[in-house]
Design a protein that fits this description.
By secondary structure, this protein is mainly alpha-helical. Helix content is 58%, strand content 0%. Bound molecules: iron/sulfur cluster (SF4). The site of iron/sulfur cluster has 14 residues, from helix 10.
């Protein structure tokens, strides 16, 4: 089954999502760490808590306890402080200049990000796609759940599924960014853990493999 019609239906149903919700590339990167294992509303509280301090020099130099206090709402805050500092140290290698980082090819950036403490494939691909404009498709539990229910054979490994999706759609930043955001929206509105299939825009194409 082709994936583009799925994208078209979701886009028509929910409209453009304008992701990622961040004012700067660095704010996006911080959000990608903070959103691990927590709801986005908790991330919003933490982002607001930074006030005008949401820039890399502050995160690099801030006292860990002070930083932990700011991001407390996101849970696992002591670990996340370590992760934020590690990611910021990686960004320092590009003089905190996102344009400089964007000059580097995506595979190299991905390898670098995956070597940063606390950055797994989902976080790395989020940063690559939304902060660094590199086309890597993000795999999360929503993506797995929806595609499985629709009827796709889902490989176990993160990268196998990513490559499978990437081979079925054009390599296009806008498409990848919007598609991921639409998947998240669809998982929240209809394809929840306990799905709401009535009036689901994908119902006609769905094999409803619900477990
Ligand atoms: S029909 Fe049901 S299972 Fe299929 S995508 Fe829609 S909500 Fe999910």
């Amino acid at each position: 089954m082709d994936l583009l019609p799925v994208f078209d239906i979701l886009l028509k149903s929910y409209g453009q999502r304008y992701w990622w919700p961040a004012e700067t590339a660095f704010e996006m990167m911080v959000g990608a760490i903070l959103t691990q294992n927590t709801a986005w509303t908790n991330v919003e509280k933490a982002i607001a808590g930074f006030g005008d301090r949401l820039y890399p020099e502050y995160v690099a130099e801030a006292d860990s306890a002070e930083l932990a206090e700011i991001i407390r709402s996101t849970g696992y805050f002591n670990q996340k402080v370590i992760k934020l500092k590690a990611l910021t140290a990686w960004f320092a290698g590009y003089d905190y200049d996102v344009e400089q980082a964007r000059q580097v090819d995506g595979e190299t950036l991905r390898r670098e990000l995956l070597s940063v403490r606390g950055v797994g494939p989902e976080t790395a691909d989020s940063i690559l796609l939304y902060a660094l404009d590199k086309p890597f498709f993000i795999i999360d539990t929503y993506t797995r759940r929806i595609l499985y229910r629709l009827g796709y054979d889902i490989p176990k490994s993160y990268d196998e599924l990513r490559l499978m999706i990437e081979s079925r759609i054009p390599q296009d930043i806008y498409l990848y960014q919007e598609f991921h955001a639409l998947i998240v929206e669809h998982a929240k509105r209809h394809c929840k853990k306990k799905p709401v299939c009535s009036e689901c825009p994908l119902e006609k194409r769905c094999r409803k493999r619900i477990e």
